[in-house]
Amino acid sequence: MPRRILLLGPPGSGKGTQAALISKALGIPHISTGEMLRDAVSAGTELGAKAEALMAAGDFVPDDLVVAIVDERLRQDDAQSGFLLDGFPRNVAQAEALGSSSAPDIGTVILLKVDTDEIVKRLMKRGAEQGRADDNEETVRRRLEIYQAETAPLVEFYGSSVLAVDGIGTIDDVFARVALALSGS
Ligand code: ADP
Fold it and tell me: What angle do CA 137, 15, 3 make, to 5 degrees?
């Protein structure tokens, strides 16, 4: 099974949930840029201060900042035998930066497919339950537009490494599909 995996999909497609399961099953670290940035915001670091307003508006944090935190994370010991990237790369420039970093090549890209109506429903529910600053209708629409414009082109960028998985269903149903896709790759 591949051990350098990238998880791609629109906001609300369940990347974080599936990433935690894949990471546990394969014993590889789950590296989420969204989570690292939210941690930086709560810790009140310089990076957090730069990221906070952008994230709340649904905009990307500048590539150089995100590329730097991923680069540093990928150098740590636990990432040497594999990793699962969630939320990075988010555009072609970040994918190119990853490709030219010291990290080994990405083996497999899992694309979680979920339609827009379902995404808006899920994120509104998450906003009400967890109070994430970026889960309100206006910001969700903006994140979806940016996903289409910036992130969706990565499917073409990664070409035949991309395995599309239907992201609708229970967490277990989706994980079974992901595991099947990974076992065949
Ligand atoms: P979601 O995919 O559900 O929108 P994430 O937790 O992956 O949530 O990301 C939340 C926010 O963090 C993004 O909307 C963006 O502002 C910022 N972010 C995360 N990863 C990146 C990245 N690779 N490049 C730029 N900004 C990022």
Answer: 160
